[in-house]
Structures are given as structure tokens and as C-alpha cells.
Design goal:
- By secondary structure, the protein is an alpha/beta fold.
- It has 11 helices and 12 strands.
- Helix 9 packs antiparallel against helix 10.
- The N and C termini lie far apart (about 50 Å).
């Protein structure tokens, strides 16, 4: 039996527009049959679900009745793939396009002893090969974790296959056996930091998390939250950084949060205000840290507000 025959590709959508079609076309061009795709829709209202239904009628379409967030929404698709007996599970953001030869290197890595997750080199769109992520590490500095190579030109510095602390959830091949052992994404996170948490849980159970630079995908990041220094992203990441520390607490982690996140907020606000940047994002981060300490959760409302703001800006520009 071929590896593709036991592969489940789970793609999650929330008002993803045309990005869904580009993502799924790239999968088909890479030799993955439509039937292996589990397309989960988080109650989109932009027509994107219907567009996928027309363009890819043989994919398994799962409709959620509300925006469940990344974690719960993705878990719906992962459960469907596990139920049908898929042995490897590809978690893929709908704003990712895969290279035609991306899958084989990941499968080879996953076949190694105790490798529970394998992830590609993730590139930013554009003519220059610029890295979005080459795996991730937990360093207990700003935002608790760090994407390796983020924003750097791809000049060979991240061309060695190696184990890492975690892999981003935008493109992640998982062994079903490992996922059954450690569990699915922790739905308390809603979105952001859930991939860091999964990496920690895998490694705690003796599974390896492998970065595979021989595989490459392109990621147009932040489609749901606005990306980059957007308030919704900064709020969610800050709140879930606190949630992560509550779950995997260490004195070093809490000290890092205090020094690199809390105490630097006034400087960050001044920097953004002086250069005409996004001081609102700094305030959103402060609210996220406070809400995390209060035990609150990220929810769909913050992402709905971010989408509404983005649509208003797009309407004003047009």
C-alpha cells in the first residue's frame, strides 16, 4: 500500500477566500488525491466553503456550525482522518502552498525511529527565498518561543535536518500512533501556541520532532488574525503564552515573561508611537498578558473583530 493511500490531509478554513483553492490545487499537483483531503470549514460566510465544494467535489468536506478556532476545528478533521484509519496526518493551513516534491522527504523522516512529527522549511511568498520558519525553539524570551530563521534569506543556514523543540501548525506531518498517544491539539488555546504545546507533549513522551529542510512550502501568514504585528495576533499570542507557562511552568519561563514581555511594554509602545507603527498592538499584547493571568481564553470574537477591521480597511482603500 502506498504512503499516500494512508495519508490524511486536514485543511481548516475560516473565511479563507481564494487561498483555499490555491492550497488545494497545490496539494493535487503534488500528487495527493482529492479523496485524501479533509476540508474543515469553521462556519465561513464569504462563500469560500461553497467554492471548495464546487472545485474539489471528491474531498471530504466537514462543516462546523461556528468558528471553533484552529485547535478544535483542526481536531474535528484529525478525528475524521483517524477514524478512517489514516496512518499519517498532514496538518495544513489554508494559506499554504506546497511544493510538488514536499511530501516524500517528510515521509522519510517520519519513518525514522520515534519521529512523531516532521515539518518542512516554510518560506515567505515572493521572488526571494526568505524564511518564515525553520522549525521552532522554546527560549523563554519574548513570546516564550521563537521561529528559527524568521525573516532571514534562505542562504543555507537552515539546510541541516535536525530535531527541534516544535514545528509550526501551518504545515506539520504527524504519525497517527504518536497523536493517539499524546492527544490532539489542546482546545483551551483556541489559536496560537497550540503547536508549541504539542511539541512539548510529544517530546515528553519520547517522540522526536524533526525539521526537514528537503521539504518546502510557502506560507502567506496571518490570514485570520491579520498577521505580523496585528492586535488580534498579539493579544492571542500573549494570552496563550501565559496559558502555556501555566501548563508547562518553570521559574525560568516566568522570569523570561516578566523581563522580555511585561517590562518592555512601555518601550515597545513608545517605539510604535514614534515611528507611526501599531501602538494598538502593544496595548493588545498587554491586555492579552493580563487576561492570561486572569485565566481567560482566546475566543472567536477577537478574530471576528480583526476580520471586520481588515474588511473596513480594504473597503476604504478601494
Amino acid at each position: 500500500m502506498s504512503a499516500v493511500a494512508t495519508l490524511g490531509v486536514v485543511v481548516l478554513n475560516w473565511n479563507g477566500g481564494e487561498a483555499n483553492l490555491r492550497c488545494l490545487r497545490s496539494l493535487v499537483h503534488a500528487g495527493i488525491p482529492e479523496e485524501r483531503i479533509v476540508f474543515v470549514d469553521n462556519a465561513s460566510d464569504d462563500g469560500s466553503r461553497e467554492a471548495v465544494e464546487r472545485a474539489f467535489p471528491r474531498a471530504l468536506l466537514v462543516r462546523n456550525t461556528a468558528n471553533l478556532g484552529f485547535c478544535a476545528g483542526m481536531n474535528v478533521g484529525l478525528r475524521r482522518a483517524l477514524e478512517r484509519g489514516d496512518r499519517t496526518l498532514l496538518v495544513l493551513n489554508n494559506d499554504v502552498e506546497v511544493d510538488t516534491a514536499f511530501l516524500a522527504p517528510l515521509e522519510r523522516a517520519l519513518a525514522e525511529e520515534r519521529v512523531g512529527a516532521a515539518g518542512p522549511k516554510v518560506l515567505l511568498p515572493g521572488s526571494q527565498r526568505r524564511i518564515w520558519c525553520a522549525g521552532g525553539r522554546i527560549d523563554h524570551r519574548a513570546n516564550v518561543s521563537r521561529l528559527r530563521g524568521h525573516g532571514e534569506l534562505d542562504r543555507g543556514g537552515y539546510d541541516r535536518e535536525e530535531d527541534v523543540d516544535y514545528l509550526p501548525g501551518c504545515a506539520l506531518l504527524l504519525r497517527a500512533e504518536a497523536l493517539r498517544e499524546v492527544g490532539l491539539f489542546d482546545e483551551q488555546f483556541f489559536a496560537y501556541m497550540e503547536d508549541v504545546d504539542l511539541g512539548v507533549r510529544l517530546r515528553a513522551q519520547g517522540w522526536r520532532v524533526r525539521y526537514v529542510p528537503g521539504s518546502a512550502v510557502v506560507h502567506e501568514s496571518g490570514s485570520a488574525s491579520g498577521g505580523g504585528y496585528a492586535p488580534a495576533r498579539k493579544y492571542a499570542n500573549a494570552l496563550n503564552s501565559v496559558r502555556f507557562l501555566r501548563k508547562h511552568s518553570s521559574l525560568r519561563g516566568w522570569l523570561g515573561l516578566l523581563v522580555f514581555d511585561v517590562l518592555t511594554l512601555p518601550l515597545a509602545f513608545a517605539r510604535e508611537a514614534l515611528r507611526g507603527g501599531r501602538p494598538a498592538a502593544v496595548l493588545a499584547k498587554a491586555r492579552g498578558l493580563l487576561d492570561g493571568l486572569r485565566g481567560r481564553r482566546v475566543d472567536a470574537a477577537s478574530f471576528a473583530r480583526a476580520r471586520a477591521a481588515r474588511l473596513r480597511k480594504e473597503a476604504a482603500r478601494s
